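As a next step, we paired sequence with structure tokens, yielding the entry below.
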Amino acid sequence: MSTRMLAVRQRTFGGPQVLEVVETGRPEPGPNEVLVRIKAAGVNPADWKIRSGLLKHRFEPPLTLGLDLSGRVEAVGEAVTRLRPGDAVFGNAFPPNGAYAEYAAVPDTWLSLMPSNLDHVQAAALPTTALTAWQPLTHVAPITAGQRVLVHAAAGGIGHLAVQIAKARGAYVIGTARADKHAFLRRLGADELIDYTQVDFAEVARDVDVVLDPIADDYGLRSLDTLAPGGTLIDVRGTGPDRSAVRKLADERGLHFVEFGFTPSATDLEAIAGLAQSGTLRVTIETVLPLADAAKAHELSETGRVKGKIVLMVSEATEGPAQAFGSSDGLKASDPQDGPA
């Protein structure tokens, strides 16, 4: 096996043009790590935010971007017993040694076996957005049957998965989205839909138990008006907006406000894999580009108008059965920090 690989690297902060394909050293797995030969890498808006320097307090060049991957286990560290070479896996990686590369060495606790009914492109689209939907609705404010859940940007990457997860737990799901996304969301199980371009959601959504908000800014304050007594607003927007006013008003009203960021978790990925395997959780793919077109992928992501999830194909990513739900179905690209959809 060669000790070299191709990766998309950046040496400085800037626009998409700072991304370049380079040859670099292939990583070696540590005792608790798995070396994954990457088939596909998901693209998230967090990627371009890191690239442009919006998250420079956490990341500094030179680095390889990419939070999501799927691929095959090439080698395992001496302490790894759960996975073995040849396993098809999906999960997370992080800069400076992210997933826009032919190989990544990541902790085995960041990976799960890939659902057998997904191909690598579909699997690579899931980890970050699915965890950002799953963990709030199962750990932070566990949804129970009959509760009312409001999902903002419901047709976005996080949103369309959150709709399905909440429905799987028996919730009544309200979503905000443009009218042309409503039919798609109804197919996913949404019970009530609000076209935020025509109606102020804060005036019509009521008695909500949990709000999942990937938008933040003024959505936070307005979302508090929709909550039932003791309700919870979960902001998954990530770094950026000042939430002090939201937190203060929530405290005054006896409501719960949580700023949430996902944590890589094999256990949660296994639960997500189970939902995908059963067909309960479906991800939509709009655009697949080769690794060398990472800059183009970022340009598309930054428009905020891409329908579906963008995935970079690193190598034979079509391995595995492609399902109909992997095709375009009227989504807007997501996150982990979505905008309105």
About this structure: The chain has two domains: 4-128+264-326, 129-259.
